[in-house]
């Protein structure tokens, strides 16, 4: 996947609707492994389709387990009763911790020779505590790289011992993997947890899933677990995977920030997943939450603004990341504590979260096991790096509710747990609307766009004026109109504002010098320079603010705002445009001949339509509006009618 891929999320105004959640990653991979270890055949329904589950499915097939796709996210798994058919195998498990840790334990106690590896980041995620616990039971495991980290070599061993100790303060997946594998020994074994056990709700998921497959675990507080001998996994024949509660967090937060109501289906108050408690913590921030057995719904606070919180997040380590981004929209400073496990996930999430929150303007303090976030006065547009971490990408989609939108780099990393996330997010969020009006020089698009903006109470962007203003700034600073790199730098430096009919350049009001043919010619020349167009792109998109924007230019609908709600290609005959321009100049006491103006317009049309970058053309999805027979009032009304027709659908 190219590291240069990105997704530009426009500024969002609101969020409401209903989302059906994909299956839980944690439950999906637990169920797949238990079905493989069980006696009998299990039909698993609503399985999450993602990179992590694909790694588990691939591994089970390599191990000789019968896995058959039934379509519609359902699989038939023929269990092996704890005796994998293939006793030698090499397994590549990507960056799937929910596959790597439990498989390590199950294979270490099953009497075969196996090599387990993953992507480079997986080889940086600790596994030493799990290996130490398995060695206490006699397992033969070697490190093939750095001590305490994957990749691993597992060899057949004489298994003995009835007590294993495992640290509980690094990852709950160590205890999960150990508990799920212990029934393979056929005797009573106790597991003692050293230190505080983090992410307890994930252990509750493990115990609940083991019970569904017929194995009971005696829990003595959170420090000791006993798996009695004589138990074996037996297929429940059919099992449904709950919707993913961690994924629910992004949509619940969107409803709380964007008004709502936004409902998620597939998980609710009856869920076995601890991350449903995210809804309780969001409620502490002021969100209005309602729940049913299999759904949850969020609305914005009565006041419209979230409150800051100070929270121990041990019970919702993954979903707590969503609170960190929601803190951008809260009054005051939010502190999230007891999140040391973030540092050993797909990336060092505390460091990554702090870095990216600072990009959008937040003040952030990070510690070994906490993060403290003070929101900015205004959230800035930023390109968010995602660190090949699905949750970073999904969390920061919420930053688009700021005034400027947000860019998500490497958006496909969400395939780890929620491949369709951004498509589903777009269905329930409403972007700041844009009316894009493109057309050739002197077609009247500027006047029409400005009047439409006034009629609708929206902001206005004259993109042609941006290029004219840059040309004017270049002339004032002695920059040649073919000095592409210097002009691109200048584009990032100049301060441009539109206020009603007034235009300001670097704090100085600009007058009729922008409407001269010389200014228009300069604008057309520099608009053909790729570096200049790229530099002005972000500046143009920054004009998109609530309650909406009307933008006119040459490529508003095709390049700058391809998601515009209404796209108009406004044109008129060259003769009509020359006559209109002549009347404009004459009204301002400026000279010119219709013949010369016609020649200039035709030359600019040729140049604009033939340029290599964003040539002038009717954008896909744009409707044509020929104003040759229309006056300004009629053209404006036609655009308003088309917009209102869209809004009424």
Q: Can you summarize this structure?
A:
With 649 residues, the chain is α/β, with parallel strands linked by helices. The chain is 36% helix and 23% strand.
Task: Tell me what the structure shows.
The structure is a single chain. The protein is an alpha/beta fold and 649 residues long. The protein has 3 domains: 6-21 and 245-431, UDP-n-acetylglucosamine1-carboxyvinyl-transferase, Chain (Alpha-beta prism), CATH 3.65.10.10; 25-240, Enolpyruvate transferase domain (UDP-n-acetylglucosamine1-carboxyvinyl-transferase, Chain, Alpha-beta prism); 434-647, Rossmann fold. The chain is 36% helix and 23% strand. The chain has 21 helices and 34 strands. The strands form 9 sheets. Strands 16-17-15-2-26 form a 5-stranded mixed beta sheet. A 5-stranded parallel beta sheet has the order 28-32-27-33-34. A 4-stranded mixed beta sheet has the order 4-5-3-14, covered by helices on one side. Helix 1 (25-37) packs parallel to helix 3 and helix 15 packs parallel to helix 17. The chain is elongated, with a radius of gyration of 30 Å. The two termini are 38 Å apart. 50% of the residues are buried.
């Amino acid at each position: 996947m190219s590291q240069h891929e990105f997704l530009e999320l426009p500024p969002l105004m609101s969020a409401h609707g209903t989302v059906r959640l994909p299956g839980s990653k944690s439950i999906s991979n637990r169920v797949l492994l238990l079905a493989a270890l069980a006696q009998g055949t299990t039909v698993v329904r609503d399985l999450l389709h993602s990179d992590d589950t694909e790694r588990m499915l691939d591994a089970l097939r390599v191990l000789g387990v019968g896995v058959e796709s039934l379509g519609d996210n359902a699989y038939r798994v023929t269990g092996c009763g704890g005796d994998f058919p293939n006793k030698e195998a090499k397994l590549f498990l990507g960056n799937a911790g929910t596959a790597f840790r439990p498989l390590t334990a199950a294979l270490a106690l099953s009497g075969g020779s196996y090599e387990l590896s993953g992507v480079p980041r997986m080889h940086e995620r600790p596994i030493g505590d799990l290996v130490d616990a398995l060695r206490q039971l006699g397992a033969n495991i070697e490190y093939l790289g750095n001590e305490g980290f994957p990749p691993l070599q597992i060899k057949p061993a004489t298994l003995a011992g009835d007590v294993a100790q495992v640290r509980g303060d690094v990852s709950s997946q160590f205890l999960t993997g150990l508990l799920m594998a212990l029934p393979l020994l056929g005797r009573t074994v106790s597991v003692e947890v050293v230190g505080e056990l983090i992410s307890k709700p994930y252990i509750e998921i493990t115990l609940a899933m083991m019970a569904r497959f017929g194995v009971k675990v005696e829990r003595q507080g959170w420090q000791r677990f006993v798996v009695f001998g004589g138990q074996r996994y037996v297929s429940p024949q059919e099992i449904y995977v709950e919707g993913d509660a961690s994924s629910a967090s992004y949509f619940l937060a969107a409803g709380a920030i964007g008004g709502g109501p936004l409902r998620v289906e597939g998980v609710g108050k009856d869920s076995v997943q601890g991350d449903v408690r995210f809804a309780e913590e969001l409620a502490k921030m002021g969100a209005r939450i309602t729940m049913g057995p299999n759904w949850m719904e969020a609305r914005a606070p009565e006041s419209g603004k979230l409150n800051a919180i100070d929270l121990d997040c041990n019970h919702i380590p993954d979903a707590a990341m969503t609170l960190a981004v929601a803190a951008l929209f809260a009054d005051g400073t939010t502190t999230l504590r007891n999140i040391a496990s973030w540092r050993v996930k797909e990336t060092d999430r505390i460091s990554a979260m702090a870095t990216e929150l600072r990009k959008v303007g937040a003040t952030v303090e990070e510690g070994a096991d906490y993060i403290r976030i003070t929101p900015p006065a205004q959230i800035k547009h930023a390109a968010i790096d995602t660190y090949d971490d699905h949750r970073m990408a999904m969390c920061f989609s919420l930053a688009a509710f700021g005034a400027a939108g947000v860019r998500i780099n490497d958006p496909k990393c969400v395939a780890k747990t929620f491949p369709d996330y951004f498509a589903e997010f777009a269905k329930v969020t409403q972007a700041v609307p844009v009316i894009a009006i493109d057309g050739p020089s002197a077609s009247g698009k500027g006047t029409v766009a400005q009047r439409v903006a006034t009629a609708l109470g929206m902001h206005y962007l004259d993109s042609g004026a941006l290029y004219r203003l840059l040309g004017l700034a270049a002339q004032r600073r002695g920059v040649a109109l073919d000095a592409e790199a210097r002009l691109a730098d200048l584009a990032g430096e100049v301060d441009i504002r539109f206020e009603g009919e007034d235009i300001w350049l670097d704090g100085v009001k600009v007058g009729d010098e922008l409407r001269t043919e010389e200014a228009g010619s300069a604008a057309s020349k520099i608009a053909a320079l790729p570096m200049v167009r790229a530099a002005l792109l972000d500046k143009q998109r920054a004009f998109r603010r609530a309650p909406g924007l009307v933008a006119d230019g040459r490529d508003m609908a095709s390049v700058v705002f391809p998601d515009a709600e209404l796209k108009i290609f406004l044109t008129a005959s060259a003769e009509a445009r020359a006559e209109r321009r002549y009347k404009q100049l004459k009204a301002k006491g400026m000279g010119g001949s219709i013949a010369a103006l016609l020649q200039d317009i035709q030359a600019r049309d040729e140049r604009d339509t033939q340029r290599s970058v964003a040539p002038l053309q009717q954008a896909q999805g744009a409707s044509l509006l020929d104003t040759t027979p229309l006056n300004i009032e009629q053209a404006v009304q036609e655009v308003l009618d088309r917009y209102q027709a869209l809004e009424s659908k």
